Amino acid sequence: MKSALKCSVLSVMLLTAATAWGKTPALASCTRSANLLACVDADGNAYSVNTVGNTIYLRGFEKNGKRYWAQTNSRFGQMTFFTGIASDGEAWVGYTRRVGWTTINRFSSSGGSSAKFTCSRLTGC
């Protein structure tokens, strides 16, 4: 799957975790208002996060793929469902379920990618 979905699912963790080689990733430059966060990273990718109640709207631009994408996350208790679409026609759906300090994540895309992975605050993903 293209990196837009992975970035939108794991963006918070990527900003705070070290990379697989032990280097700290370059942080994005962000501007914030009451409900909106807009960021651009060192690679030229851009995204914004808008929160309205229990719904989070993500929009972005992936520089390498030269495509725009949008994703909507809706939270219901410990479950968060998300759907997204990109300018090249790829669409994806998935969910994240919190169980204590662990999250169970599953997604699939129209591009043929799918995955299920578990993340923990103590051990990572």
Report on the architecture of this protein.
By secondary structure, this protein is mainly beta. The chain has one domain (3-18, 28-120): Beta Barrel (Lipocalin), CATH 2.40.128. Helices cover 11% and strands 53% of the residues. It is built from one helix and nine strands, in the order H-E-E-E-E-E-E-E-E-E. It has one helix spanning 3-16; strands at 29-32, 36-40, 46-52, 55-62, 67-76, 79-86, 91-99, 102-109, 114-120. It has a nine-stranded antiparallel β-sheet with strand order 1-2-3-4-5-6-7-8-9. Strand 1 (29-32) and strand 2 (36-40) form a beta hairpin. The longest helix has 14 residues, at 3-16. It is globular and about 35 Å long. The two termini are 17 Å apart. The model is unreliable at 1-23 (pLDDT under 50).
**Overall average pLDDT:** 84
CATH top level class name? Mainly Beta
Number of domains: 1
The main sheet orders its strands as 1-2-3-4-5-6-7-8-9
Rg is 14 Å
Order of helices and strands: HEEEEEEEEE
Keywords: Signal
Protein name: Glutamine synthetase
Signal peptide: 1-22
